[in-house]
């Protein structure tokens, strides 16, 4: 169990007030986010058939919760890790046009997660996806989209300040762009996590780009599934988070793979067997649109805006009793 306890922590809001703030943030953010990115809200599945290849494999070592259904024979059904692949197919299935997109409430179970202040076995995020043209698969499209998302998050800071002035956590005014290789060059003797903390403390907020491929050191900054993000055109939105004296990831996103980048990444990940799955065949024959998309953590955003010390303060989940007791003893009230 890894747990950070801020000194003299004051949650500012009662549990009841926190619940009211959670509802306000979630409802207000998704409305503004959808409007700014031209996204429509869709319903989405909690589970998919394993054979479709639609589930997110994350780093390839996490095992999804799976089961069988009475009327589905012996088919293995998996609770989603995310909707990264499902969304792209949905854009085609529902007939979305160029520069239109969708967002949805994604609820997942990641049972192999290491629990700490930020991480829960229950994941709740806005998964989103938007149709782009092939010639828009570039860094400029990525950075423009990131700036729009940052603008919406900053807008939310002001909205929360108006409704809950004593609780709002103030954010930097600008987001900076840096690649994982540039970051390794800056801090060659640090671990990836230490590098993220160092750059976020220095700049306030960064979009850390190009996550997946090995760096010049021969090591990867972090793992990424090889079959949805293009590792040259993806990244994470990271804020410096003073309450815990470390960075916090709010979003992972990117321009999605085309046939060439997917084949190269699957080869690198020793996962070329996936090329026979229905989803991957659609990428190979370009029968689904080119897209950009990602996920924005709902509980993480509430944490960030309210200055909370633990994701369990803004999310009802399960925690080890030792963590519950230590949090309660330090004025951290888990839902």
UniProtKB/TrEMBL annotation:
One GO term of the biological process aspect: L-asparagine biosynthetic process
Pathway where it operates: Amino-acid biosynthesis; L-asparagine biosynthesis; L-asparagine from L-aspartate (ammonia route): step 1/1
InterPro entries: aa-tRNA-synth_II, aa-tRNA-synth_II/BPL/LPL, AsnA
Gene expressing this chain: asnA
Gene Ontology CC annotation, any one: cytosol
Entry-linked HAMAP family: AsnA
Protein name according to UniProt: Aspartate--ammonia ligase
Domain Aminoacyl-transfer RNA synthetases class-II family profile: 23-320
GO molecular function annotation: aspartate-ammonia ligase activity; ATP binding; catalytic activity, acting on a protein; transferase activity
Similarity comment: Belongs to the class-II aminoacyl-tRNA synthetase family. AsnA subfamily.
Upper taxonomic lineage: Bacteria, Bacillati, Bacillota, Bacilli, Lactobacillales
UniProt-annotated location(s): Cytoplasm
EC number in record: 6.3.1.1
Key words, A-Z: Amino-acid biosynthesis, Asparagine biosynthesis, ATP-binding, Cytoplasm, Ligase, Nucleotide-binding
Catalytic reactions of this protein: L-aspartate + NH4(+) + ATP = L-asparagine + AMP + diphosphate + H(+)
